Amino acid sequence: MTEILVQDVTGGGISLDAARVIDHPAWPELKDAVEEIRAWQSTDGSIDFEAEGAPARSLVELTIDRVTAAVEQLSPLVPHDGAYHRALVDDLRKWAESGFTVPDFLDSLLAFQPAADRVDGLQHLVLFPMYTQNGNPDRNLEAVVLRMVWPEWLAELEATRYDNPLFCGITFEDFTAGYDTHSAVLFPETIAVREAPERFTWGGIFCDREAARFRKVTAAAVDTLGLQLPADIAAMIDDQERCEKAFVLWDMVHDRTHSHGDLPFDPFMIKQRQPFWMYGLEELRCDLTAFKEAVKLEAEGNTHGRDVQYAVLFDRMFRFPLSGDRTRNYDGLGGQLLFAYLHKHDVVRWTDNTLKIDWQRAPEVTNQLCAEIETLYRDGIDRPKLVHWFKAYELVSTYLAPHPGSKWAKGPDALDLSLPPRKLVDDVLPDEFPLSMFFEALAKKLKGVIADTKGITAADVSRTERAAA
After folding, report:
1. For the chain, how far is it from start to end, CA to CA, in angstroms?
2. What's residue 358's pLDDT?
């Protein structure tokens, strides 16, 4: 673990004793200035001064001055971010000097290195032009204050078992509008830069939002489906801190799995013109690998192992299939596949509008699905790309009914195989595997609950629970 130092900004040390950034008067000033700038930005982050209702350039420059002044006031509270904040101020000023063209914050991105000092509870003040995954699709300026989640037990597992030096477990302190959404990640890939770095050196996932959302949706699903939970799992769903621990462990193992195993895929493969079920299988493979490891951890006496298993099962089965729209919904597909697999192997039964789960067999059968996906990957090494895509389709369609109008479901003879594989992706329907009757029924009860988790934080859940008490 990194030694915890208490120094001022000039010393560049790490301080856990500093006041909360969000309690400083410069923080609301920074938020207000950023929100003003966001409203003026185009999709690519630039500001079009010729557009109707556009602000005067002098007004934008004054607002940028307010942003840089606030950053400089707040930076002493997070001295470990000092080099980053100095580069950030430089990038903000260069953006202004460019006439607010498409922003380029590569220099400040390279200076921000949160994974270099993973200290539990450490604050960071982050400001970038970026889109927020599952949130705002435009590259607007966003400010967020966060804390690192890196307890000793997690650091020990990473150091001895699940090496992932780039992973950052994080929680929200406060944020601008781009994070008042369903986004629960902070990824360098989303930031506006002139060129992508040779490699990214960190990736952050907000376990507090994931846990709060999981608890709210799972509680609603359990109530709707009449599901009887084991006492220890019911206690977990009632405990925000315990769920956060489950999610940070799940995320750490999931994240590393993208680069481990047979035929590991780029997690951003959907940009490479592959069918969305390939991305769905990859995400599910990573989640089921985390599940498999959690089964091992539970057997070894690790108290977080069982929690991770049911976080994976319930989030995948109840929330994922019903979140977002139905256009190339790869995470939804993975959730549908998991439920259907467990249902066809008699681990889950939906009878008399009540869901029952065979808690004893659930780990074994879930690991069985993981093994089938791993076999697909291993065999794929010896197959051409298009054959591999069809084999993956075959696996999914064994358990999920394709759309009746699907060309892919009719097999290779229905496609123009003279075209390159990436062109055949155009024949994939936006909703290639529609929701089953079970999920159509569940959606009527849970869609509103899922929508209400937009922007949720642990503090929101705490307020709701106090009000209920």
Report:
1. 39
2. 98
Joined together, the tokens standing for residue 78 give 């997070």
DSSP-assigned letter for residue 81? G
Dihedral (Cα; 208, 209, 215, 216), 10-degree rounding: 150
The tokens of 371 are what? Answer: 């093994």
pTM of the prediction? 0.94
Q: How many angstroms separate the CA atoms of 391 and 372, rounded? A: 12
Q: What is the pLDDT of residue 295?
A: 98
Distance of alpha carbon 457 from alpha carbon 413, whole angstroms: 50
C-alpha 182/C-alpha 462 separation (Å) is 18
Q: Which amino acid is at 386?
A: L
Separation between Cα atoms, residue 112 and residue 202, nearest integer Å? 9
Sign of CA dihedral 156, 159, 163, 169: positive
List of E strands, 176-312: 185-186, 203-206
Residue 357 parent element (H or E): strand 354-357
- What's the Cα-to-Cα distance from 177 to each of 35, 142, 147, 163, 169, rounded to whole Å? 7, 7, 19, 34, 21
Tokens of 447: 């869609």
- pLDDT given for residue 389 in this prediction: 96
pLDDT value at position 207?
98
For residues 202 and 115, the answer to whether their CB atoms sit within 8 Å is yes
The predicted structure's pLDDT at residue 11:
41
A 10 A CB-CB count for 401 gives 12
Q: Which of 341, 252, 263, 342 is nearest to 297 (CA)?
A: 252
Burial class of 147 by CB neighbour count within 10 A (0 to 12, 13 to 18, 19+): buried
Residue 157 is encoded by which pair of tokens?
Answer: 């597992």
CA distance 360 to 348: 11
Smallest Cα–Cα separation from 82: which of 161, 137, 12? Answer: 12
- Cβ-count burial 30-65 (b if 16+ within 10 Å, e if not): bbebbebbbebbeeebbbeeeeeeebeeeebeebbe
Q: H helices within 25-175, ranges in order?
A: 26-40, 57-74, 82-97, 106-111, 152-160
Predicted confidence at residue 469, as pLDDT, reads 63
Q: Determine the 3-state secondary structure of 4 from DSSP.
A: coil
What distance in Å separates the CA atoms of residue 387 and residue 23, rounded to the nearest whole number?
57
Q: What parts of the chain have a pLDDT lower than 70? A: 1-15, 264-272, 466, 469
What is the DSSP-derived secondary structure letter of residue 52?
T
Beta bridge partners of 124: 146
pLDDT confidence of residue 13: 59
